[in-house]
């Protein structure tokens, strides 16, 4: 068993004044009386009920001690079994291929749902960071134990028009190597071929089937001799667009 906040064990110190109050006895004042037999019956009645009263006080003390102990143990956050306390870096692939539909929803949407489930399941029990990867590795939230910070950062995740580059892969590999065994790096992606060369220590969670990062990025336009417009064939794969040449009809 492990505890997320062992400092709260100091709450058990509250038992000390509670026990001290229980054993505290107020000594009665001695006063002279004219006749002792007038008080004798009262003393006998109090002696008969004193045992029950002390037992009742002892039960009250035990109940209060149990309440304080339960609050202290709950505040320490006990965890059964082996608990992974390593910091977690969640990296979401935002390259264009993540916009491909998987069961009616794009892979990026599914990745964000999974990331939200992870954040809520951790519930602040460990520090978590969030980053996106496409043309480069970009942090949206650095290590934080506050789930609200992570959820706010997750709401800002959007698809990029840049494919995954070697720069992003090198940055992610360097980050995984520098953090060592004290951190986990989790990549949420569709698993397309652009992620070749990832370090073995990076955990990969895939959504859907791999898809190439291809799309129409530019088209050529020129004036035809007849005065109409003629569009050249579109180009895919990230080639730089060219400006159209204008000729007089």
Verbal overview:
- The protein has a five-stranded mixed β-sheet with strand order 7-6-3-8-9, sandwiched between helices. A two-stranded antiparallel ribbon has the order 1-2.
- Helix 3 packs antiparallel against helix 4.
- By secondary structure, it is α/β, with parallel strands linked by helices.
- The C terminus is likely disordered.
- The longest helix is centred in the first third of the chain and has 40 residues.
- Helices cover 35% and strands 20% of the residues.
- It starts with a strand and ends in a 13-residue tail after the last strand.
- The chain has three domains: 78 residues, no CATH class; 120 residues, Rossmann fold, CATH 3.40.50; 35 residues, no CATH class.
- Strand 4 and strand 5 form a beta hairpin.
- The chain has five helices and 13 strands.
Give the topology.
Blueprint: E1 2-3, H1 15-23, H2 37-76, E2 78-79, E3 87-93, E4 101-102, E5 105-106, H3 107-122, E6 128-133, E7 137-144, H4 147-154, H5 166-179, E8 183-189, E9 203-206, E10 216-218, E11 221-223, E12 229-231, E13 235-236
Parallel strand pairs: 3-6, 3-8, 8-9
Antiparallel strand pairs: 1-2, 4-5, 6-7, 10-13, 11-12
Helix pairs in contact: 1-2, 3-4
Which ranges are low-confidence, i.e. pLDDT below 50, for 5 or more consecutive residues? 234-249
The averaged pLDDT comes out at: 76
CATH superfamily annotation of the largest domain: von Willebrand factor, type A domain
CATH class of the largest domain, please?
Alpha Beta
How many DSSP E strands? 13
Span of the ends, CA to CA: 83 Å
What is the radius of gyration computed over CA atoms, rounded to a whole number of angstroms? 35 Å
The name CATH uses for the topology of the largest domain is Rossmann fold
Strand content of the residues, in percent?
15-25%
* Overall shape: rod-shaped
* Structural classification: alpha/beta
Q: Name the assembly state.
A: single chain
Estimate the helix proportion, in percent: 25-40%
Sheet having the most strands = 5 strands, mixed
N-to-C SSE series?
A: EHHEEEEHEEHHEEEEEE
Spatially, the strands of the biggest sheet line up as: 7-6-3-8-9
Number of helices: 5
If classified by CATH, what would the architecture of the largest domain be? 3-Layer(aba) Sandwich
């Amino acid at each position: 068993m492990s505890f997320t906040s062992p400092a709260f064990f100091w709450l058990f110190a509250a038992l000390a004044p509670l026990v001290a109050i229980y054993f505290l006895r107020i000594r009665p004042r001695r006063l002279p009386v004219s006749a002792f037999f007038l008080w004798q019956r009262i003393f006998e009645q109090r002696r008969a009920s004193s045992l029950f009263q002390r037992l009742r006080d002892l039960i009250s003390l035990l109940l209060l001690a149990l309440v304080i102990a339960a609050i202290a143990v709950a505040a320490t956050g006990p965890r059964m079994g082996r608990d992974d306390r390593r910091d977690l870096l969640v990296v979401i692939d935002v390259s264009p291929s993540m916009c491909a539909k998987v069961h009616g929803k794009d892979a990026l949407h599914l990745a964000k749902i999974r990331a939200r489930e992870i954040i809520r399941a951790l519930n602040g029990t460990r520090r978590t960071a969030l980053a996106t990867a496409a043309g480069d590795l970009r942090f949206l939230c650095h290590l934080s134990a506050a789930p609200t910070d992570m959820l706010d950062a997750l709401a800002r995740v959007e698809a990029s028009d840049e494919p995954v580059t070697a720069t992003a892969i090198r940055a992610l590999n360097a980050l995984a190597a520098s953090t060592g065994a004290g951190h986990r790096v989790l990549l949420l992606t569709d698993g397309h071929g652009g992620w070749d060369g990832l370090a073995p220590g990076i955990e990969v969670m895939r959504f859907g089937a791999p898809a190439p990062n291809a799309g129409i990025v530019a088209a050529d336009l020129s004036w035809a001799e007849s005065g109409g417009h003629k569009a050249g064939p579109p180009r895919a794969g990230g080639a730089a667009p060219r400006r159209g040449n204008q000729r007089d009809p």
